[in-house]
Amino acid sequence: MSQRLSQLSAHLSNSYGRGLLAGEVAIITGAGQGIGRSAALLFAREGAKIVLSEFVLLSTIHLDNDLITVLSIDPAKLDVVEQEIKATGGDAISVAGDVGADDFPKKIVDAAIKAFGKINHIVNNAGFTYDRMLHVLPDDTWDIIMKIHVRAPFRLIRQAAPYFRVKPEQRENRSIINISSTSGLHGNVGQANYAAAKAAVVGLTKTIAKEWGPFGTRANTIAFGLIHTRLTAAKEAGVTLEIDGKKVALGIPGAKPPIDPTASSGQAYPQIPLRRGGSPDEAANAMLFLASPLASYVNGHTLEVTGGSGI
């Protein structure tokens, strides 16, 4: 028994002591800001080499109230995150581009292999909302959400298949993490397109889990509840995304600001048992768990990260 404990201790020291993802390679889309940025920084701190991508729609983001324009294509966002990782001794590369473009999956997979020689994890995090009531929802509004939230992750995963369907002697910790939403589990008013897309993500993930499980690859989904990002901020702030010249309002009408998690519980979010929304860092923690060896027997699961909402 003592010998087995010594062996286990040595294993933990050699592996987790260098980080839960030591020596592994992770592609994270939508990594220039919000949850994706938090995940990239966290994975890097846990020893992973990061392939950063920020989704692009040949568009601009406007903060109309302040007359500020920020390019969503701006590679500087990725550069900042890349430099943050390298400043702490980590390793990362940036691959800017439209995640929905036909050539993007090959572009990012080839870049990852050229830089690091392998891929251990894909985190399909890039996305946005384009809300309309069902009876006035136009085809193009439906199509763009499906393209970014379902087609793009599917095509990236398919492109990376040779690096996940591997021989037994080549197996390491490998996982696919697809981001869904409570909208995909329960539906949501004004989000028929988004809810349908996020429901599809769950089905896609379960299929990957069944097809690629025999190769040692795990596939899981995270369904986020309220996480405070630009997509869940107050719509009245005037943040919009332009797609083909059309302004898409981001945010939630009348959304309340984040609450300090260390403060006493209030009543701003009575529908959430923790009485607050989550932070991007808390969202990233869930991603790390599913990617790490701590979830080595978790496959085909949808992890709800909601503060207890919906239970």
Automatic annotation (TrEMBL):
TM region positions: none
Record bears the keyword Oxidoreductase: yes
Pfam families, per database record: adh_short, adh_short_C2
Assigned keywords, A-Z: NADP, Oxidoreductase
GO biological process, one term: fatty acid biosynthetic process
InterPro entries attached to this UniProt entry: NAD(P)-bd_dom_sf, Sc_DH/Rdtase_CS, SDR_fam
Top-level taxon of the source organism: Eukaryota
Gene Ontology MF terms: oxidoreductase activity, acting on the CH-OH group of donors, NAD or NADP as acceptor; quinone binding
Family: Belongs to the short-chain dehydrogenases/reductases (SDR) family.
Name of the molecule in the record: Uncharacterized protein
